[in-house]
Write a structure and sequence with these properties.
The complex is a heterodimer of chains A (562) and B (231). Helices cover 54% and strands 15% of the residues of chain A. Chain A is of the alpha+beta class and 562 residues long. In chain A, strands 3-4-12-7-11-10 form a 6-stranded mixed beta barrel, surrounded by 4 helices. Chain B has one domain: Rossmann fold. The two termini of chain B are 27 Å apart.
Chain lengths: 562, 231
Amino acid sequence: MNTRMRLQHSTISRVYPVQLANRYLTSRIIPLIAVAAVALCVALVVIVVSVMSGFLDMLRASGRTLMGDVVISYPIRGIPWYEQLIDTIEKLPEAQAATPLIDTYGLVRMPYPEGSEKEVVTANVWGIEPQSFNRVTDFSKALYWKPPITPEAAAAMLPDDPRLKLSQNILNDGLDLMKSATGEPGLVLGMHVSIANERMRDGSYRPRYQWFMPRQSVTLTLVPISAKGTIAEPRERVFPVVNEFKSGVYQIDKNRVMISLSEAQKLLRMDAGTLYDMQAPPNADGSLPVLGTSPAKVHKVLVRAKPGVTPDQLQAAVFSAYEKFAFDISQDPSKAVKAPRVESMTILTWEQHLRDLIAPVEKEREMMRILFSIVYLVCAGLVLSIFWAIVQEKTRDVGILRSVGSSRLGILWIFLQYGLVIGAIGGLFGVGLGWLVIHYINFIHETIGQDAPAWSYMASFCIALVSLAMCVRGAMTGVLLSTLLWLVLGITLAIVGAGLMLHRGTLIWDPSVYYFATIPDQVDWFTAISTWFGAVIFSVLGASIPAAKAADIHPVRALRYE
Amino acid sequence: MSKFLLEAKNLRKTYTLGRVKVPVLRGASFTLAQGEWVAILGSSGSGKSTLLHLLGLLDECDADSGGVWFDGNPVADLKFSARNSYRNQSVGFVFQFYHLLPELSVLENALLPNMVNAGMGWASKRAQAQQHATELLDAFGLSHRLTHKPAELSGGERQRVAIARALANQPRVLLADEPTGNLDTKTGGEILDLIAAKHRKGLSIAMVTHDPAVAARADRVVKLVDGCVAG
C-alpha cells in the first residue's frame, strides 16, 4: 500500500480506550474513592426520597382504608334521614357500600392508675354501625386483638404473643361493639390511646402489667351540642373495652375510640325523638303540640366505590344522589325536618378530605427531591475534581498515546468512559446501599433508639488503644504517614467509643410527628432508577471537562510534562 | 517522485515563552533517503528535538515556514485523522525517557499502536498483531518479560520495549530522540545494536543525539547549530 493510501485509509480503534479506561479503573485507588463518593450521594437521595414516598403512600393507603372513597359531611347539626340517603347511595351502580358515622370529641376516663385519681384523656369519638362500617373500611382487619386465622399466621407470631391464647369471641365482640357475655354496649380503643400496650421489635404488642385493656372498662363523656351551637349537659357512660384497633396512623391510633352509632347518638342527643311545636300554645294537658318525628342524625356518611370506579366518579354520582335525596325529603309532607341542601354539604373524596394532611407531605417530598438533587452537582463536582487530578497525573500518557497515533476523540473517550463507568458502578452501589438501609431502617432506628451495648464502646476503646500504641511505634520508627494514620484512627475510635458510651437512645422518627409508628421500608424504585441515571449523566458531565482538557493537551508538551 | 523518503526544507520555528519569542529552528533543512540512518547531532537547545517532532508531526503547530514531505507528499496539509494515521503507521517514535504506559504490560505496550490502528476489528487482528509483537520482543530478548509492568524492568529493557512499540506497525521511518541518553554506555551500545540490526533490514532512521560516539553509528551526520544545519 503506498503512503497516501495508508494515510487516507486509517481507522482509529475504539477498543483501546475501553482497555485503557479499564486499566485506569482497576489499577488505582482514586477511582474507588470516586465510586464511593457517587455511591454515597446516590444512597442519600434514594433513602430520603424513598422514606418520604413511603410515608406518602402509607398516608394515602391508610386514609382510604379508614374513610372509604367518598365522605359526605354535615358537622354539628348532622344529616337527618341518613338511612334513606344510604339506601339511595347503595342503589348507585358506582357505590359498593355506605355507612353512617358520628364524629365528635369526648373525654375517656381510663381504669389506671390504682386508686380514685384515674387518668382522663381526650379522644376523637366515632359512633359507627359495625357491620356497614366494616364493609366500607375493613374495620375487622384493623381490630388488633384476635386469634391467628391460619397455622402459618400463628407460626409467625412470637411464642409469648397474647393473641395466641385469645378466643374468637374477642374479635366478635369488637365487630359487634358489644360485650357478648353481658350484652353491654362496648367500646374499641385506638392501640395507643391507653398506656397499656408496649410495642415489641416485631411490631406486636404486649399488655403492660395487668392492663390488658379488653378486660377493663372506661367511662366516656360526650358533650351534646344543640342545632344553635350551644352546649348541653354532658352525658357519660361506662363502656367495657371490647377490643383495640390499629390503623397504622399513629395520630389516629393515639386519639380515636369507637362506640356503636346508637350509643353515640344517645349520648349526643342525636337519636330519633318527637318534634314539638315550640311556637304553638300548649295543649289542654299542658303538653306541647307534636309537629312530627325528629329523625336520628349523623355527622358523616362514608361511601365505598365498587371495584374499577374511581373516587372522582363516585363523588359525582354521590353528589347527584344527594341532590335527589334532599329534593325527595323536601317534597315529603310527612317529614317535618328537611335535609340540608346540597350546597350546604361537603362531599369530598378521601384524598380531598385528607388534603390538609397529604398536600404538605407531597410538597415536602418534592422539596426534598429538589434539595437533594443538589447531590447530583456534588457528584459532578467530585468526579470533576478527581478526574482533574487523574488527567494531571496522566498527562504524559496522553502524549504517549498521541505519539502512537491516538486521536483527540480517542483520548476524550477514554476519560468519558472512565466517568461513565464510575457513575454507573457508583450509582449501582448507591442504589444497593440505599436498598439495604431502607430495608433495615426500622431495625437501625430501634437500635439507635436504645442505649449502646457495653461491648460496642469497650471494643472501640480497645481498638483505639491499639491504634495509639501503633502510632507511638510509628513515631519511634520515624514513619510519619503511618504515625499520622494510626493517630487519626485512634482518636476517631476514641470519640466513637465515648459517643457510644454517652448514647442514651435517640428517637429520630417521632410517631407523633410522622403519624406512623414505623418508618416506611420500601424503596421508591422510580427515584432509585432516575437517581442512578442522574449519577451516570452528571458523572459523565463531571468527567467531560477534564476529558476535553486531556484531549486538548499538545502532544509534545504532554511528553515533556513533569 | 522525490528521491528522499523524508524531507524537510527551510524549517523555521519560534516558540513563545511568556512575552519572549525564542527562535528554535532558523531555516533548517533535512533529508532522509530510504534505508538511510541519519544522526542529527547538536548541543542542548540547538533545535534537534524540535526538528524531529516536526518530521513526525508530533508538534501539532506546524513550522512557521518551510515544509515536510514524506515519500514526496507534503504532510503539513494533512487533516487530523491523517496526521494520527501518519504517526501510527508511517513513523515510529523512540524517546529518551522510554514513555511506556505504566498500567500496561510489556506486551500490551508493544501492541499499543496496533490497538490504536485496529478499529472495531481488533478482535480479528489481535492474534496476528500479538504474534508480531511477541516476535519483536523475543528478538529484543524480552520473551520472559511479556507480562511484566514497565516498573519491573531495567532502563535498557524499557527502551527495548519502546523500540518494539515504535516498530509494531512496521513503519518506514524510526524517529529516535536520544534513545541512549538515559542509559549507561554498555546498555546504550546494546540498544544501538538493536537499532542497527533493524537498519540493516531496511529501516530508515532519524536519530537525535548530542553524543558524537552515538552519531558515529549512523550512515550520515547532520549537525545542528542554533537552529541551522551547519556545514
